[in-house]
């Protein structure tokens, strides 16, 4: 399993992994793709959309979790508000 640990202060250093959204429904898969690139993987947004079951309204949190799991990431979904982040 791949574990991902990046402190927020380090985010500026990793701009080279930036993945732009093709449209408004790509937010979740674009974010997932940036994590994948950081870990040395290269997937198309189309493939990630398929894994995450992205529809016309976007991707659910569960879709992102399942797509990450399909790509061998260890995931943990938690419920919380913005203050918990």
From TrEMBL:
CC annotations in GO: membrane
Designated name of the protein: ATP-binding component of an ABC superfamily peptide transporter
Molecular function terms from GO: ATP binding; peptidase activity
Pfam families named among the record's database cross-references: Peptidase_C39
One of the GO BP terms on file: proteolysis
Limits of the Peptidase C39 domain: 16-80
The keyword ATP-binding appears for this protein: yes
Domain of life, per lineage: Bacteria
Keyword terms, alphabetized: ATP-binding, Nucleotide-binding
């Amino acid at each position: 399993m791949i574990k991902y640990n990046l402190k927020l202060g380090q985010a500026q250093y990793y701009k080279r992994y930036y993945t732009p959204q093709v449209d408004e429904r790509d937010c979740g898969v674009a974010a997932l793709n940036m994590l994948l690139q950081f870990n040395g993987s290269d997937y198309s947004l189309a493939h990630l959309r398929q894994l995450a079951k992205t529809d016309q309204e976007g991707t659910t949190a569960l879709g992102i979790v399942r797509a990450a799991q399909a790509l061998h990431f260890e995931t943990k979904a938690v419920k919380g508000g913005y203050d918990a982040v």
